[in-house]
């Protein structure tokens, strides 16, 4: 599956390179700034759905803590767990709908019971047997998963750029201006500067947007855009507690989360492929196996303490392709920062004061970079003949169809809607089935004609 390194992406720091500490810290903060809001948003959404109230802050804390620990494990490994790749981990939106529904119908104990059982079982089994199932995940399939992950992030990024879905000031000109400012600064610095300025282009852009948001707040143009009330209410230190929300085990939640972990595994395979695409290759079997082990095991361990499942974050893969900084040591520092934030709710709350519009401008760029890296993976390793073009067309067509018009499936049973309105699921399974059953050199069942 590996290919020769492609010279089009300039790698500033390779996989095992160690940038100087000040630079490493800033590069790590760039990763944290891009992923912290969506990672914690899952906790806020589910907490609101099940009526947790102030207890939501504890789940946010656990999400940050175990995102950080899982990121460190991915970068450095513990035994056979970990990929030794710059993979930033966080809580995936894949689990939001199921966690909310199960939490309302069965209680949060059933959510964490299902995570505890299925995380290590499903992804551990996939990682253990990955050498056997690898032929079913050629670059055509993994590249399509990366593309749809990036495209799927775009509407969410646009919502953030407009001020956040449900915001009373959604679409306000100052929100759009902030997002445009962040996007413009990041692009200009990346394309027209060199050295540390280019490497930190995303972080600098977010900082500029934050300062602009502060100015809009204090001048009264956008009152309430920046608020620190939540910061003052949080303690400096909080210790994780085993079984904070209890555990219960029910067949329906367990089956539901088992399937979602299968999807999470597909996302992780896609994100890891996106990361190594910067080097013009796909991950090795050992890298895939270690990455999947981390996904499942750390999700189950986190569930013991009240964290939602962790998985690879696509926007951070976009940063790697955007900046050319592939050092796993930089990502390891980012993991330590996340873990520290998880132990200090006050500091974590301060970081999450980044306005949605500022964050949206950065993620819009990162989402596009993820999709572009998926396309690059396909063009580097896949022959775009008639057979593969049809697989691409059908998979992306169906995935984007359910992403943009989910209401078209409104007449189906709820269980079917839960399954078929997930664009990553639809794209991945369509590509997997077509690539497997249609004769061609990429099919694991047939020889090329």
UniProtKB/TrEMBL annotation:
Keywords, A to Z, come to: Membrane, Transmembrane, Transmembrane helix, Transport
Report a single Gene Ontology molecular function. xanthine transmembrane transporter activity
Q: What is this protein called?
A: Xanthine permease
Localization annotation: Membrane
Q: Which domain of life is it from?
A: Archaea
Key word Transferase present in the record? no
Where mainly located?
membrane
Q: Name one GO cellular component term.
A: plasma membrane
Key word Membrane present: yes
- Per UniProt, what is the membrane topology? Multi-pass membrane protein
Q: Which family does it belong to?
A: Belongs to the nucleobase:cation symporter-2 (NCS2) (TC 2.A.40) family.
Any transmembrane segments, and where?
25-46, 58-78, 110-128, 135-154, 174-192, 199-222, 242-263, 330-351, 357-378, 390-409, 415-438
Which NCBIfam families did the record assign?
ncs2, NCS2_1
């Amino acid at each position: 599956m590996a290919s020769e390194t492609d010279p089009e992406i300039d790698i500033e720091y390779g996989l095992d390179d160690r940038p100087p500490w000040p630079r490493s810290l800033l590069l790590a903060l760039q990763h944290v700034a891009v992923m912290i809001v969506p990672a914690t948003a899952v906790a806020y959404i589910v907490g609101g759905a099940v009526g947790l109230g102030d207890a939501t802050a504890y789940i946010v804390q656990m999400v940050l803590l175990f995102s950080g620990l899982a990121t460190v494990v991915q970068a450095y490994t513990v035994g056979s767990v970990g990929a030794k790749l710059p993979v930033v981990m966080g809580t995936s939106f894949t689990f939001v709908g199921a966690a909310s529904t199960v939490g309302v119908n069965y209680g949060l104990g059933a959510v964490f019971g299902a995570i505890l059982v299925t995380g290590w079982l499903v992804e551990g089994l996939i990682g253990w047997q990955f050498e056997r199932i690898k032929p079913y995940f050629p670059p055509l399939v993994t590249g399509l998963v990366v593309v749809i992950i990036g495209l799927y992030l775009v509407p969410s990024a646009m919502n953030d750029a407009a001020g956040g879905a449900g915001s009373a000031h959604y679409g306000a000109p100052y929100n759009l201006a902030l997002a445009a400012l962040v996007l413009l600064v990041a692009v200009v610095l990346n394309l027209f500067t060199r050295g540390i300025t280019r490497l930190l282009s995303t972080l600098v852009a977010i900082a500029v947007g934050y300062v602009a948001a502060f100015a809009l707040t204090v001048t009264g143009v956008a009152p309430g855009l920046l608020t620190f009330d939540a910061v003052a209410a949080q303690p400096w230190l909080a210790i994780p507690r085993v079984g904070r929300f209890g555990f219960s085990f029910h067949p329906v939640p367990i089956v539901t989360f088992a399937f979602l972990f299968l999807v999470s595994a597909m996302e992780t395979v896609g994100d890891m492929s996106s990361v190594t695409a910067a080097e013009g290759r796909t991950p090795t079997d050992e890298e895939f196996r270690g990455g999947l082990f981390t996904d499942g095991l750390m999700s189950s361990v986190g569930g013991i303490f009240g964290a939602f499942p962790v998985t690879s974050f696509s926007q951070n893969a976009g940063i790697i392709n955007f900046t050319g900084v592939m050092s796993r040591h930089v990502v390891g520092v980012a993991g330590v920062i996340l873990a520290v934030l998880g132990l200090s709710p006050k500091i974590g709350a301060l970081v999450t004061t980044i306005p949605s519009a500022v964050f949206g401008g950065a993620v819009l760029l990162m989402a596009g970079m993820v999709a572009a890296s998926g396309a690059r993976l396909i063009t580097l390793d896949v022959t775009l003949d008639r057979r593969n073009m049809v697989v691409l067309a059908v998979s992306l067509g169906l995935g984007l169809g359910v992403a943009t018009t989910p209401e078209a499936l409104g007449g189906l049973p709820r269980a079917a809607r839960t399954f078929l309105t997930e664009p990553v699921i639809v794209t991945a399974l369509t590509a997997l089935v077509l690539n497997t059953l249609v004769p061609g050199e990429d099919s694991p069942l047939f020889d090329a004609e």
